[in-house]
Design goal:
Blueprint: E1 21-23, E2 27-31, E3 48-52, E4 57-65, H1 71-93, E5 96-104, H2 108-115
Parallel strand pairs: 4-5
Antiparallel strand pairs: 1-2, 2-3, 3-4
Length: 120
C-alpha cells in the first residue's frame, strides 16, 4: 500500500520498522493509531487508515483472522464497529470514506483485489 502512494520502503526486512504515521503530498497513512473525531467513537483505532489526498478519500483497513465458518460474522462485526468512525471522518474532512476488510482465510485474494494490491 505504501508503494502505491509514493512511499519508499526498505528492502531489508530486519532493518524495516513500521512507522505509526507516514505523510507525503499524495497520502497520509496511519498504522494502529487513535483517530480524533468530534463525537466520541468507541472504535477509533483502525489497523490502517489512509487519507488519500489526491482522490479526497479516506480508507479504513481492518485486518482479521478467522476460519471460514465465522467469516461472515467477523466481516459484519468489523463493518459495524468502524461504520460510525467512517461516517464521522467523512463529515469532518468532507470526503468519501471506505471500509475495507482483510480477513485472512483461504479467500484472501478477494481482499487483495479490493485493496488493489498485487501479491509479490
Amino acid at each position: 500500500m505504501a508503494k502505491k502512494y509514493g512511499f519508499t520502503r526498505s528492502t531489508k526486512v530486519r532493518t524495516h520498522s513500521v512507522q505509526e504515521v507516514m505523510t507525503n503530498d499524495n497520502a497520509e497513512i496511519r498504522v494502529d493509531t487513535r483517530v480524533d473525531t468530534d463525537a466520541k467513537v468507541a472504535h477509533n483505532k483502525p489497523d490502517i487508515l489512509i487519507v488519500d489526498k489526491m482522490r479526497k478519500e479516506i480508507i479504513i483497513i481492518e485486518v482479521g483472522i478467522t476460519n471460514f465458518d465465522l467469516l461472515s460474522v467477523v466481516e459484519n462485526e468489523k463493518l459495524r464497529n468502524y461504520d460510525l468512525l467512517a461516517n464521522e471522518l467523512g463529515l469532518i474532512h468532507k470526503c468519501m470514506t471506505k471500509i475495507i476488510l482483510y480477513v485472512m482465510t483461504n479467500f484472501h485474494k478477494k481482499y487483495l483485489k479490493e485493496l488493489d494490491v498485487l501479491p509479490t
